[in-house]
């Protein structure tokens, strides 16, 4: 009888110590459904007791980290396994500002990028890294500038020239289209990035990518301005841009030339009419070709229209 009492007493002491170590009674609650959570059900872990599941999760992480099959290259407290045909990586992110914690955080981010890439190909890895870095830059701009200054990188933001600025420059220098393209190409090669907004945006800004050639003459003491643009040059630039937007086969294209005068000026226009094979509504593109005007009257420049 004494022996049985001793065994009973030892069981009670063990149960008491286990409860004290856990600080959470993992048996309180409804046992997990056997169909949805067979492992939890086997060990009688309740699925409605969140503290109980947290406790089991923490112990599983510790046990897996010390298991011989655990990947030692993974960050501490992280696990990786195959789930439904996909390799899933669960990372334990540290908290704090100590140098050790920061090194661990950097290591975790690197592992995350390599895991997402699913390949050892450097181009794929760089693409994933660029996506992560771009997202961090958007969220933490000041921190990015601090890192750039510390490492001696260029900290000036490379803004592209707007369509208005590029147009003003081209008009002032009276640059032809080919000259503009060559200058933009060399500037991009020098700085390593495009210095001006895309051609499509320039085209939408008053047809100003193809600039005017300007001349002046005097008649009876009045100074007359001649401004014109080469129609073949305009078509070579604008047509590819607008044809991309149609996304449907063209049956015919007609070009009509005309003009209008008034208030001391004459305006020359080129109108392009597009008809489509599917008989949908035609589209018209109007371009300003040239202007003859007395300098004492303002000249209104027409924007290109797609009607």
What does this structure look like?
β5 and β6 (265-276) form a beta hairpin. This protein has helices spanning 2-22, 38-42, 50-65, 99-117, 122-139, 141-151, 163-173, 177-191, 199-204, 231-246; strands spanning 79-83, 86-90, 213-219, 222-228, 250-262, 265-276, 283-294, 305-306. The N and C termini lie far apart (104 Å). The protein contains 10 helices and 8 strands. The strands form 2 sheets. Strands 3, 4, 5, 6, 7 and 8 form a 6-stranded antiparallel β-sheet that branches. It has a two-stranded antiparallel sheet with strand order 1-2. It folds into 3 domains: 1-70, no CATH class; 158-206, no CATH class; 212-307, no CATH class. The relative contact order is 0.05. It is 45% helix and 21% strand. The chain is of the alpha+beta class. α4 crosses α5.
Layout of helices and strands:
Layout: H1 2-22, H2 38-42, H3 50-65, E1 79-83, E2 86-90, H4 99-117, H5 122-139, H6 141-151, H7 163-173, H8 177-191, H9 199-204, E3 213-219, E4 222-228, H10 231-246, E5 250-262, E6 265-276, E7 283-294, E8 305-306
Antiparallel strand pairs: 1-2, 3-4, 4-7, 5-6, 6-7, 7-8
Helix pairs in contact: 4-5, 5-6
List keywords for this structure.
307 residues; 3 domains; six-stranded antiparallel β-sheet; two-stranded antiparallel sheet; 8 strands; elongated
């Amino acid at each position: 009888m004494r022996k049985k009492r001793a065994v009973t007493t030892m069981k009670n002491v063990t149960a008491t110590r286990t409860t004290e170590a856990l600080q959470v009674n993992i048996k309180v609650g409804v046992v997990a459904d056997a169909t949805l959570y067979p492992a939890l059900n086997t060990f009688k872990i309740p699925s409605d007791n969140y503290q109980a599941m947290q406790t089991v999760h923490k112990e599983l992480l510790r046990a897996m980290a010390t298991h011989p099959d655990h990947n030692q290259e993974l960050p501490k407290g992280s696990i990786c396994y195959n789930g439904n045909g996909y390799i899933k990586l669960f990372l334990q992110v540290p908290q704090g500002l100590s140098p050790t914690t920061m090194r661990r955080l950097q290591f975790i981010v690197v592992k995350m990028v390599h895991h997402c890439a699913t390949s050892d190909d450097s181009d794929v890895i760089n693409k994933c890294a660029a996506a992560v870095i771009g997202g961090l830059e958007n969220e933490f701009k000041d921190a990015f500038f601090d890192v750039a200054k510390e490492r001696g990188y260029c900290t000036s933001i490379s803004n592209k020239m707007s369509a208005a600025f590029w147009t003003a420059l081209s008009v002032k220098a009276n640059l032809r289209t080919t000259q503009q393209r060559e200058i933009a190409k060399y500037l991009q090669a020098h700085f390593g990035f495009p210095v001006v907004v895309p051609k499509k945006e320039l085209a939408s800004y008053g047809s100003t990518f193809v600039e005017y050639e300007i001349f002046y003459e005097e008649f009876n003491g009045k100074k007359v301005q001649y401004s014109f643009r080469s129609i073949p040059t305009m078509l070579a630039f604008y047509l590819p841009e607008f044809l991309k937007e149609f996304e449907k086969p063209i049956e015919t294209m007609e070009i009509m030339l005309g003009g209008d005068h008034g208030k001391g000026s004459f305006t020359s226009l080129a109108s392009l009419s597009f008809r489509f094979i599917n008989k949908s509504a035609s589209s018209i593109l109007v371009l300003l070709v040239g202007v003859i005007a007395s300098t004492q009257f303002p000249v209104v420049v027409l924007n290109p229209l797609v009607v």
